[in-house]
């Protein structure tokens, strides 16, 4: 049975379920940072997915990237799949801008997260959920 890695779950807020992936919001108020987790048990690399799931993954990454870029068109979009600590396959899709706390370096491991408050986190997750639904219907 599929379950999101506990470390990933503890660092994020649920946003939406797409055809293949669970979409999470990384709980760091400094960044617009969504994470896609394919709902497939035991998958650690994109290559572990079937060709059909690989194609669906990239469709969903594109959807999420379009939503992020639409929200802040002037920013730089980063997409990454590291998995050195959390081995479960997950892809980070986030917006970067000059002057953000980690600029121009990578955000991973740069500094401790600054979590949303409970109400602000819920509102942010609902915002991204609504934007994803709008884009998926377009």
Strand order in space, largest sheet? 1-2-3-5-4
Task: Indicate the mean pLDDT.
Answer: 95
* Helix/strand order, N-terminal first: HEEEHEEH
Could you tell me how far the N terminus lies from the C terminus, measured between alpha carbons in angstroms? Answer: 32 Å
CATH superfamily placement: HIT-like
Q: Helix share of residues?
A: 25-40%
Tell me about the largest β-sheet.
5 strands, antiparallel
Number of helices: 3
Give the overall silhouette.
Answer: globular
Which architecture per CATH? 2-Layer Sandwich
CATH class: Alpha Beta
Strand content: 15-25%
Q: Segments where pLDDT lies below 50 for 5+ residues?
A: none
Radius of gyration: 14 Å
Task: Give the assembly state of these chains.
Answer: single chain
Number of domains: 1
Structural class: alpha+beta
Domain HIT: 34-103
Protein name: HIT family protein
InterPro entries: HIT-like, HIT-like_sf, HIT_Hint
GO molecular function, one term: methyltransferase activity
Short recap of the structure:
The chain is α+β, with helices and mostly antiparallel strands and 138 residues long.
């Amino acid at each position: 049975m599929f379950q999101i890695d506990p470390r990933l779950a503890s660092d994020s807020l649920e946003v939406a379920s797409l055809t293949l992936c669970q979409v999470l919001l990384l709980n760091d108020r400094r960044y617009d940072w969504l994470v896609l987790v394919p709902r497939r048990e035991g998958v650690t690399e994109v290559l572990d997915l079937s060709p059909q799931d690989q194609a669906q993954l990239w469709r969903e990454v594109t959807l999420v990237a379009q939503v992020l870029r639409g929200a802040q068109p002037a920013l730089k979009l980063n997409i990454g799949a590291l998995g050195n600590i959390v081995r479960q396959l997950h892809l980070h899709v986030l917006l970067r801008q000059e002057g953000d706390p980690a600029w121009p370096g990578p955000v991973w491991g740069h500094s401790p997260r600054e979590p949303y408050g409970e109400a602000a986190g819920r509102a942010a997750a609902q915002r991204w959920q609504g934007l994803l639904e709008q884009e998926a219907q377009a």
